[in-house]
């Protein structure tokens, strides 16, 4: 039996190699558009910044090495332009010559291509996209030859921000812009993304959100970008606006697609029997909502392609879907991780979602190099099922994220983590895992023991109608009513028992302690500001003098 694979990189090469391991008698052939059939696409930003020294370090396998290792035949420079599904034939172009290839089973793994906006100046020298090693190499070469000092990165998703970090480390002045209202749109909720954006700005990166690109300026080569918020100088412009499935050649072929992405079942088979698809050209199932989702991640491509290969070889496996897990390094001292639904997405999906934002130590506070996590947990109000998680911090955000992946994937509840025996030693964690602390805090919120104002609520209302109570060890918030927590052993002078009080401290913990005491003394309308001054910019309107 002959299996034809269209595309390489992650899904195509994984599926082809697994097929040959499943059944050595299969004839497996890859038609790859590019010359690099297997490369580390996620490593491109780090090659641009010089962290990865050589282009060859990005190449996982050459066609020759891959063929020798797997027994798969590889044809590079072969771009599929049409598929005749009834005839089981693929038409492709190689070296300018059109040819056909037959198949018994077909795997479509053509990946995705960079989104390029239709604006003037897109063809100027110094304007680049980032999708292949050739793209990254061209950026490094151009920057080196032209003495580049200022860069504009258009797009503030994970790849765009990784490029920003690497350009900054290479000594460039960097501006990052995005049409969305905050960085990392759809991956992090607004209040988390805004906090991360402020950290980037403190590190010297200009962050322009809610900003639309209208043109790239320059005469022959780019010297800046024009936007609805003005002109920004740049010696180099890098487009990181995301990707779209490379499926134009399948238009009107009869295969089911949705917004250009191929629809597959849990067996990774398309609407046409004997034809499979995986990777950035295909949709997968969202394990939380059960709906279709686009997951252009190397992890999704590899996992789903393995299942695909087992089924194409005659097996009966299913790929239950993805939960949208991702991690990103933003600065040397700041990384982010997320999985599951954002609060916004959970509400749109029909869940009665509740969330909490909390700040915890990432390891024992007295240990060298200790820092903190800013975390957000989203759960279903009635069942306490964990729906999503987001974390920002200088420590091992991937560890926290991976714990949350288990919770979301398995449909676990907050209480399932209360007594879990996670690894602890001062260099690694806190005695009660930060993730468990987060679950306990949300449990307290759901029970009513911890009554709060979320950072997003504060951002939108500025705590209108509430008196701000400063619960820090020393007076910190100008104009607020300071309370010495250690001396509270009864009603507090100056605070009415039915007065709306917003309790603010550094992180939220002292505010919770004060709220607990005040409730015991008959106070009825207290709220603790989640995340405290670590997350929120708190200002008190002072009366006119």
Q: How many beta-strand elements?
A: 34
The 3D shape can be described as: globular
Low-confidence stretches: none
The portion of residues forming beta strands comes to 25-35%
The CATH superfamily of the largest domain is identified as FAD/NAD(P)-binding domain
CATH classification, class level of the largest domain: Alpha Beta
- Oligomeric nature of the chains: single chain
Task: Give the strand order, joined by hyphens, for the main sheet.
Answer: 5-2-1-9-22
Mean pLDDT: 96
Described by strand count, sense and barrel closure, the largest sheet is: 5 strands, parallel
> What's the number of structural domains?
4
- Overall CATH architecture of the largest domain: 3-Layer(bba) Sandwich
Structural class: alpha/beta
Helical residues, percent: 10-25%
First CA to last CA: what distance? 87 Å
Gyration radius, rounded: 26 Å
Number of helices: 13
By CATH, the topology of the largest domain is: FAD/NAD(P)-binding domain
